[in-house]
Design brief:
Number of helices: 3
Radius of gyration: 16 Å
CATH architecture: 3-Layer(aba) Sandwich
Structural class: alpha+beta
Distance between the termini: 38 Å
Length: 144
C-alpha cells in the first residue's frame, strides 16, 4: 500500500481526534475538497477549516501551495506521523497568514539564489521543517 496515502489518512484522523479531545466538533471532507480536510466548530461555536499536511519521515520540507485569502479561517496542521517504533505523532498548528508569509519568504530566497529565477514562479512552494518544528504545538492558535 502507498505509504503517502496511509500517512495522510493517519494524519487527518489524528488531527480530528486531537481536536475532539480538546472539545471541538469535527467533520471530515473525505477527500472531496482539495483545500479543506476538516470542517470544525470550536468549543465556543466558531467555525473554521483545516488543511492537514502529513509526513512520516523527516524532518523534511512540507510542500504547500499558498492559498488566496478567499478561504476565511483556514488553518494548517502539520502532522508528523512516524512509524510507532519511532515515536509519537507531533503537531504544529499555523494560521493561513503564517504559512503564506513563510512561503513568500522561502520563494524570495529561492529567486535570490539565481538571477534567472527572478520572474519565475516557485515550482515547489512550501514550509521548511525548521519552521514547523519551531512552532510545534500551537493549538491555542485556533478559534475559541
Amino acid at each position: 500500500m502507498n505509504r503517502h496515502h496511509q500517512t495522510q489518512w493517519a494524519a487527518q484522523f489524528a488531527v480530528a481526534s486531537e481536536l475532539c479531545r480538546r472539545g471541538h466538533q469535527v467533520a471530515l471532507t473525505m477527500g472531496n475538497h482539495p483545500k479543506i480536510d476538516l470542517m470544525v466548530l470550536s468549543p465556543e461555536g466558531a467555525p473554521y477549516f483545516i488543511d492537514v499536511k502529513g509526513q512520516y519521515k523527516g524532518p523534511n520540507f512540507w510542500p504547500v501551495t499558498p492559498q488566496k485569502k478567499g478561504i476565511e479561517l483556514l488553518f494548517y496542521v502539520f502532522a508528523f506521523v512516524p512509524d510507532p517504533k519511532q515515536g509519537q505523532t507531533r503537531f504544529t498548528v499555523l494560521s493561513q497568514d503564517n504559512v503564506n508569509t513563510h512561503i513568500a519568504e522561502n520563494t524570495a530566497k529561492w529567486k535570490a539564489r539565481k538571477s534567472e529565477r527572478s520572474d519565475k514562479e516557485d515550482p515547489m512552494p512550501g514550509v521548511s521543517a525548521d519552521y514547523v518544528k519551531k512552532y510545534e504545538g500551537g493549538w491555542d492558535n485556533l478559534p475559541k
